[in-house]
Amino acid sequence: HESLGTLIEAFAGLRVLVIGDIVLDRYVLCDATELASEAPMMSLTRLEERLYVGGAGIVARHAAALGAKVSLLSTVATDDTSRHAEQILDQESIASRLIISRSRLPERTRFLVEASKVLRVEDGRSQPLDSVSEREAAAWVRSVASQVDAVIFCDFGYGTITCRLLEQLHTILGDPTRTKAANVSGPRSRLLDFRDIDLLCPT
Q: What is the pTM of this model?
């Protein structure tokens, strides 16, 4: 307990850069009433709906909640959900560089009955950065790299992290004293393209 407390306290003041896909996580809380009569499926009654800024966004938010000074590089659209995500990140003092390169944010909807997740629906497609946006992203990271103690990549396969951008970032962020971690998820993520990573989480 003591060593864990010391570890958590050490986050205070760390300068953390998070790079990756923002994903909207929608949770629909339901009550299971019966089996539907027209097909072998559950019939659910919607009780409540909650929307969270997830993906790279939630990683940045957790790091900030632990006391770190967090910067976030990601991609967004010009829609209401993107503006909602920006507002949440601003409220939690996360310095965000959000490149407009998407038609809409990816969204994952989970239907829950009590504590059990009964269905997940994914609504999002990969929209990789073009070469202009890659240069813009790399230039921004280069401008803040000297102020970064740790980097967390969050690759969910929606296009923020491309092969060319990752190659540039490996060079820009290659300082061996800097802690680097990567969280990858889904078949479109670039698990095998990450190198010189201290912690790689394929889940």
A: 0.90
